[in-house]
Write a sequence for this structure.
């Protein structure tokens, strides 16, 4: 393996995607590992860009054929997973892999790649702020937002398993802290 693995995890609405987009605009040798999901696209999401959108049956077929490094059923019949082929493609090149993963997936990838990986947990400033962000986003029904908030309580329990925890109370500060942690990791032996 030539490259290193960077894992970014966070509860929904914590600013993870915004921070990842910021990182990809910086002059770091990172390539985003597009995950697969069985959920439909939200908003302007495009297949092969934010996710590989698979039917539930196609996702389960890939599970049976052992095509994932890790996968998780986050909600009933809503799976997310990291394809082996995507990671192998990136690691065989000149870039490091940048993952956007749920907390369980992030923990699994960290255990697999050990010292060749850096795991970063983006923490919301508070549950109240997180609720405001999810409603302001306008991409989910109120019922789905409440499901997400219930899951957040569970996900926050994983923060201690990550190498770095960054509180996203001020976006620009969280972006810079994440960038610095990754830059330092990439340049370490």
């Amino acid at each position: 393996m030539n490259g290193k693995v960077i894992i970014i995890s966070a509860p929904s609405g914590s600013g993870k995607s915004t921070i990842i987009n910021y990182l990809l605009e910086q002059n770091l040798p990172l390539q985003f590992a597009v995950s697969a999901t069985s959920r439909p696209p939200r908003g302007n999401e495009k297949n092969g860009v934010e996710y590989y959108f698979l039917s539930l049956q196609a996702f389960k077929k890939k599970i049976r054929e052992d095509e994932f490094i890790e996968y998780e059923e986050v909600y009933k019949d809503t799976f997310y997973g990291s394809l082996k082929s995507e990671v192998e493609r990136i690691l065989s090149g000149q870039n490091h892999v940048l993952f956007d993963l749920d907390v369980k997936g992030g923990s699994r990838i960290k255990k697999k790649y050990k010292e060749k990986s850096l795991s970063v947990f983006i923490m919301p400033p508070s549950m109240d702020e997180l609720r405001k962000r999810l409603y302001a986003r306008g991409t989910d029904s109120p019922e789905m937002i409440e499901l997400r908030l219930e899951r957040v309580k569970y996900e926050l329990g994983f923060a201690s398993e990550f190498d770095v925890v960054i509180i996203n109370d001020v976006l620009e500060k969280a972006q810079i802290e994440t960038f610095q942690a990754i830059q330092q990791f990439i340049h370490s032996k």
Remarks:
- Helices lie at 16-25, 56-64, 84-91, 103-113, 127-137, 142-156, 171-186.
